[in-house]
Amino acid sequence: MNMPNAGLVLRELSGVAELKHAEWFQKEVWGKDDPPDNSDLMLAIQHEGGLVAGAFKDGRMLGFLFGFPTSQPHIQHSHRLAVHPDSRGMGLGAKLKWFQRDWCLARGITLVRWTFDPLRRINAGLNIARLGGSASAYYQDYYGEMVGINAGIPSDRLLVDWHLTAPRVEALAKGQATAIADGAGETLTVEVPKDLDRLRAADLDAAISERLRVREEMTSAFSQGYKVEGFDTEACCYLLAKADGAAS
After folding, report:
1. Which of 39, 116, 215, 227 has the CA that lies 20 to 30 A from 139?
2. Alpha-carbon distance 32 to 25, whole Å?
3. Strand partners, 56
4. SS3 114
5. pTM of the model
6. Cα→Cα distances 221→65, 135, 215, Å
C-alpha cells in the first residue's frame, strides 16, 4: 500500500550495524530493562526468510518491525513493532504493517499473527480498527513477570489473526472504511482503560483489577463463540461478534 510521506523510507534492515542499532532502538521504546531481540538472532532469522524492517527519515530509524516464519509456510509471526517515542502520531505503525503485508503477499504469505496487550488502547486501535485484524484467543500471563513499561501487572495477551486477503483488510488497504461483517449475528462489547500507563502509575491495584476484568469478559465471550472483529476508538471498547449459527 502506498502511503507517501516526504523523506520517509520503509525497507528491510541491511547488515550487522543496522541490526545492532535495532537492539538499541528496542531499549529506547520498551525501556533499558526489557531485553531486546539481539542482532545475531535477527540476522539468522532474516537469512532464513524472516522480515526485519525499519522506517527511516534522513537516515534515522523511526520505526522497527520484526517477523519470522512459522511451521506453516503461509503464516508469519510478527514479533515486534516499535515506533520511537518522539515519532509517534505520524502513522508509522500502520505504514510498517502495510509494508509487511506487501512483503508477505509477494512471498505467498497470507496470514500474519501476533500478540498484544488488550488493555493498550492505541495498539487495539491499530491492530483491530485500522488493520482489520481479528482475535479469538486470549493468553493469560503470556510472558510471565515483565519489566520496563509492562511491569507490575500480569502479561495477558490477545492473539491477532491478520488475514491479508480478507475483504475487510483489502478495503482498509485501499483506505475504505469498514464495519463488522454483515454475516455477524449477536454482538457485545468489552471496554478497556483509556490510558493503561497512566492508570498503572496512579493506581497499580486498579490496573490489575482492570486486567482481571477484561480477562474474564474476553475469555467468557470466546468460550461462547464470540470473536473480536472491531475496536471503537471513541468509546474505547472492543466489538465482538458471534457468527450466525455459532454454538452458545
Report:
1. 39
2. 10
3. 9, 61
4. strand
5. 0.89
6. 31, 11, 10
- Percent helix, strand and coil across the chain, each rounded to 5? 35, 30, 35
What the block records as the C-alpha cell of 15 is 547488515
Residues 6 or more apart whose CB falls under 8 angstroms from that of 232 comprise 129, 189, 238, 239
C-alpha cell at 143: 510472558
Query: Which amino acid, residue 51?
Result: L
Helices and strands counted in the chain (H then E): 7, 10
What residue type is 157 in one-letter code?
Answer: R
Cell numbers given for 100: 509487511
Cell of 53: 524492517
Q: What is the dihedral of CA 191, 195, 198, 202, to 10 degrees?
A: -20
pLDDT for res 184:
58
d(Cα 2, Cα 17) in Å, to the nearest integer? 28
**Buried b / exposed e along 128-143 (16+ C-beta atoms within 10 A):** bbbbbbbbbbbeeeee
Q: Note the pLDDT of residue 145.
A: 82
User: Looking at 58-210, which runs of residues are DSSP E strands?
Assistant: 60-69, 75-83, 111-116, 134-139, 157-163, 184-191
Model confidence at 248, pLDDT cuts 50, 70, 90, reads very low
Backbone angles phi, psi at 162, to 5 degrees: -110, 95
Only one residue has cell 537516515, namely 59
For residue 113, CA distances in Å to 90, 180, 244 come to 24, 20, 25
Instruction: Please identify which residue in the block is written with the cell numbers 475496536.
Output: 231
